[in-house]
Design brief:
The protein is an all-alpha fold. The chain is built from twelve helices and no strands. The chain has a domain of 38 residues. The chain is elongated.
């Protein structure tokens, strides 16, 4: 009987201890997190960006987006998130943030910036940071991102020809156009080496017909010349030789130079302008 009484006391103790512990924890907690004013988060993000702490800036800007979705700084925080993600080398997040901003604020004063950054982030997905800062030739790699970037920059230039970012987009598109053409001709060169002249002709013709004004037109014509000669297509060969002599008579011994110098540092001077 005494054993049963002792067991009941132990059972009661086991039931009471968790309740007491819960009450103690509740009393000692700091309570619910206190939200700071929206401007505090925005000013914090600005200070962090000035000190190149983009990870911290993203944290502050995302706090505005989640806690004050209709606040005074909400739209500006969203557009600056695009910039912060890019400077933090988060190209996928940059592209997503730009697309989201375009979808939510199609008439925003900084909408041209969002379109521009979408195109820029597509290109940078194709290459590492080191490749962008060196002379590494990306033409022989998978350049699906470069093709997407070219398309997005073209859309940007059509929509915003007078944007402050238009000169950069035009220069970048010249580079991308030439890269895409080189990529096609790299495959054409390979086909020539294995005597697959029909495939080489297709690639060279694609460059001439679909990538006009690239730096690689002369090279494409020379591939056609070599392929037609190897296949014995005399009439087509004569036509290509005439085109070369009429348009590239002074370039038989050299290819066209391309303009590819482009500074990645310009973004430091083109941070999105705060809207009123």
């Amino acid at each position: 009987m005494q054993i049963m009484k002792h067991s009941k006391q132990i059972l009661k103790l086991l039931l009471v201890v968790p309740i007491v512990a819960t009450l103690l924890i509740g009393c000692n907690s700091d309570g619910p997190e206190i939200e700071e004013p929206e401007k505090i988060y925005y000013d914090r993000a600005q200070r962090r960006m000035l000190s190149s702490n983009f990870f911290g800036a993203i944290e502050a800007l995302e706090a505005i987006e989640s806690r004050y979705p209709f606040g005074k700084y909400a739209e500006q925080a969203q557009v600056e998130l695009i910039y912060a993600h890019f400077m933090n080398s988060e190209t996928e997040a940059t592209h997503s943030a730009a697309e989201k901003f375009i979808r939510l604020h199609p008439r925003h004063p900084n909408i041209d910036y969002a379109y521009f950054m979408k195109g820029l982030s597509s290109y940078t997905r194709d290459s590492s940071f080191i490749s962008r800062l060196t002379d590494t030739d990306l033409s022989n790699r998978d350049i699906s991102g470069a093709k997407e970037s070219f398309s997005e920059f073209s859309e940007f230039l059509t929509r915003f020809p007078d944007s402050q970012y238009a000169p950069y987009a035009k220069q970048r598109n010249v580079y991308l156009r030439n890269m895409i053409a080189r990529n096609e001709l790299a495959a054409a060169d390979y086909y020539v080496t294995v005597n697959a002249y029909v495939a080489a002709i297709r690639r060279a013709n694609y460059v001439i017909e679909n990538i006009p004004n690239s730096s690689e037109n002369f090279r494409a014509l020379k591939i056609l010349e070599a392929s037609y000669q190897a296949l014995g297509y005399s009439e087509l060969l004569d036509g290509v030789v005439k085109v070369i002599s009429l348009n590239y008579s002074d370039q038989e011994s050299q290819s066209i130079n391309e303009t590819s110098n482009w500074s990645w540092n310009f973004l430091k001077d083109t941070k999105p302008i705060p809207s009123d």
